């Protein structure tokens, strides 16, 4: 059975992700207490269910601590298990809670440093939730939904679902340092050392996917050497990531604006690895 577990920080889009999986034909269960996971899988196995998606959140944080052992057990039973951990920057989460006017799941929880009559602020709830889920985050594929629309998240989840049968999905993502490093990056490479096409008026409105920008960067010896070095590093360590039972590896390439250099290099890397690996491409500032 193919099993996708969705967890993460409240407000990061777990309900959107679960809906995408439901539309893809998965049998979906929302807010399942983790200690019931094995029983649910056993029931679904008896009923010959092929695909299962389960969402879990901070309300079950104490029992989420046993999730790594449950995942190991499920894999030993022959199930294909993948974990998606959705997160976002605190300011993005605050904006979403403000827009929806919903309370945080931990809003009525009294933290150790508070008076029993004083509920935690939204920022305190988010900080507490991050601490509670830190161990779970380490075992999942992290998706940073900061500033991401629901439609964009749906598209990214669909891309991951399409890669269900791949032993490891190699994901190349371009981004702008001025908007922050993606929270979901496993490896980060800074390509701001390369000449910037932004300062050429003819190239400024274009992107790294356009031929004139590509020709400009291809003419730079440093760009070719940097791509070769990144390609060599990823290729050298990719087998080790596979042995570590990773389902996804996100390689983030950053430049100043996320429009020219990082986009070009992501496309070049994806083109190189695509014949031998399952590759996905994201351009955070363009998509």
Automatic annotation (TrEMBL):
<protein>
    <submittedName>
        <fullName>RNase adapter RapZ</fullName>
    </submittedName>
</protein>
<feature type="binding site">
    <location>
        <begin position="8"/>
        <end position="15"/>
    </location>
    <ligand>
        <name>ATP</name>
    </ligand>
</feature>
<keyword id="KW-0067">ATP-binding</keyword>
<feature type="binding site">
    <location>
        <begin position="57"/>
        <end position="60"/>
    </location>
    <ligand>
        <name>GTP</name>
    </ligand>
</feature>
<keyword id="KW-0342">GTP-binding</keyword>
<dbReference type="InterPro" id="IPR005337">
    <property type="entry name" value="RapZ-like"/>
</dbReference>
<feature type="domain" description="RapZ C-terminal">
    <location>
        <begin position="169"/>
        <end position="286"/>
    </location>
</feature>
<keyword id="KW-0547">Nucleotide-binding</keyword>
<dbReference type="InterPro" id="IPR053930">
    <property type="entry name" value="RapZ-like_N"/>
</dbReference>
<feature type="domain" description="RapZ-like N-terminal">
    <location>
        <begin position="1"/>
        <end position="162"/>
    </location>
</feature>
<dbReference type="InterPro" id="IPR027417">
    <property type="entry name" value="P-loop_NTPase"/>
</dbReference>
<dbReference type="Pfam" id="PF22740">
    <property type="entry name" value="PapZ_C"/>
</dbReference>
<dbReference type="InterPro" id="IPR053931">
    <property type="entry name" value="RapZ_C"/>
</dbReference>
<dbReference type="Pfam" id="PF03668">
    <property type="entry name" value="RapZ-like_N"/>
</dbReference>
